[in-house]
TrEMBL record:
Residues 112-178 are annotated as: Disordered. One of its GO terms (molecular function) is metal ion binding. Residues 155-169 have a biased composition (Low complexity). It comes from the Eukaryota. One of its GO terms (cellular component) is nucleolar ribonuclease P complex. This is Ribonuclease P protein subunit p21. The keyword Hydrolase applies.
Length: 178
């Protein structure tokens, strides 16, 4: 049984706060160990591996900036000049190539000025709905959508009793624009 919260006390809004704090500590400890002794990154890799296991066990998402600093192949921190090389390439489009010096794994990040991470895009943030009405549909410019004309639609019947397959007609002329 947990302790009861008093009326005036603030309750934690973030679920699994202790796990996030532990993951943050392990990330900082890994960075500190690697900066203190860059010739032996094994302890740093162990801390990163433990951090990832904590996140997997509780199904927690890491910050994208933190994810970019971790190698998926060997769980080492990708520090430029120590455990990774960073190069700017422009084959398809200008991007940064990060190559892990431990396992050779490669990551590519676009460098377009208008590029925005999916998690940073305000359109992708869930908005709480205050009313019971469904969210508005996006407006289409000059496109018509086919709607089902229920007045002419036949009701489906059991296949053993009907001789012809049930059909549903779609009237494209009765489409409405929002």
């Amino acid at each position: 049984m947990g302790k009861k919260q008093k009326r005036g006390s603030k309750q934690s809004i973030v679920p699994h706060r202790e796990a996030f704090m532990r993951m943050n500590f392990l990330f900082q400890a890994s960075l500190a160990v690697l900066s203190a002794n860059p010739s032996h990154p094994q302890l740093s890799r162990f801390y990163v591996h433990t951090m990832k296991n904590v996140g997997k066990r509780l199904v927690l998402r890491m910050d994208p900036g933190m994810k970019r600093m971790l190698c998926k192949g060997c769980d080492s921190l990708l520090v430029p000049g120590v455990t990774a090389t960073h190069r700017v390439r422009a084959h398809r489009e200008t991007h940064v190539v990060v190559k892990c010096l431990t396992c050779g794994n490669v990551k590519r990040f676009p460098t377009r000025p208008d590029y925005q991470l999916w998690s940073d895009n305000p359109a992708n943030v869930a908005q709480p709905q205050t009313t019971g009405e469904p969210p508005p549909t996006p407006a289409t410019s000059g496109q018509t959508t086919a709607t089902l004309d229920h007045s002419r639609a036949q009701t489906p019947t059991h296949p053993s009793t009907s001789k012809s397959p049930p059909t549903t007609t779609v009237d494209k002329n009765s489409a409405t624009d929002p």
